[in-house]
What we know:
It is found in: Membrane. By secondary structure, the chain is an all-alpha fold. Helices cover 74% and strands 1% of the residues. It has helices at 8-28, 35-63, 67-91, 98-126, 133-156, 167-191, 217-251, 258-267, 269-280, 284-309, 323-340, 347-365; strands at residues 129-130, 344-345. The radius of gyration is 20 Å and the shape is globular.
Amino acid sequence: xxxxxxxxxxxxxxxxxxxxxxxxxxxxxxxxxxxxxxxxxxxxxxxxxxxxxxxxxxxxxxxxxxxxxxxxxxxxxxxxxxxxxxxxxxxxxxxxxxxxxxxxxxxxxxxxxxxxxxxxxxxxxxxxxxxxxxxxxxxxxxxxxxxxxxxxxxxxxxxxxxxxxxxxxxxxxxxxxxxxxxxxxxxxxxxxxxxxxxxxxxxxxxxxxxxxxxxxxxxxxxxxxxxxxxxxxxxxxxxxxxxxxxxxxxxxxxxxxxxxxxxxxxxxxxxxxxxxxxxxxxxxxxxxxxxxxxxxxxxxxxxxxxxxxxxxxxxxxxxxxxxxxxxxxxxxxxxxxxxxxxxxxxxxxxxxxxxxxxxxxxxxxxx
Length: 367
């Protein structure tokens, strides 16, 4: 996820836009605003997302892989968790399934949308898209385990009525999810770091993405601070736009669950941009690190956060998937395993994942 040296205008923009977004957030928080101001909020939100990508890449270039992918994955998940908690706190029973819908949407977007786009772009350029089998298989196995324990089991447990956990079951799922996430991060960054480094088409492991000079400590800490500002701005401004999103979904006659899809698409935009850039630079492994890392973080961090938040939130917490979504999840796991076991993907594998992503979006609109 290394980045080229930005020009003066880029530096000014990536510094000013997050600060402007924060100012707009301060003046609009908790207020009803006219259409012109809503447009300004949307502009600042988009700018903050792009700025977050830039500053995450600066930090990533400094710390190297796979730490760089981890920085952006965790940053994006922080946005997602904050959005879910704030929307559920304000929405009451109406948002009882928002956590499930958003997390499942994140898994489908990352494991099918981002993975499919990355493989397609990488294979389009060079015929095949190479990556590490060991690291990618481990990531897919982790996603499958977390998704099944947190999103499938609640449909079949009998302790509570409906697709939800009892208090004890939710606490267990939260602890297990966090433990599995931390175990994966330890493997990715310490014990088996080499499994998550980019590889060439000849199978050579690359310990550096390119020969660009890394940013200084001052530039890195400045980007880290601006990344945090951009994330706060994204969370706050998306919270402000959430009534507009909900009313738009209602006006279009779409299912309420589609709100979770819109939120996940918005939150994962930085990941999508960063992954496509890496794929264009023949760093497919980094793209997969971003995609699978975000899916793992989305479940491993969101479920514990929701479990803690449920202590003071009223209403049920629906986590179990319906039959259609369970079929989509099962098919995604099977196709993902068959894709990664060879360590080389073609346009076909990328197209299959994109087909699954398109099917998920279509079924979210027309269930």
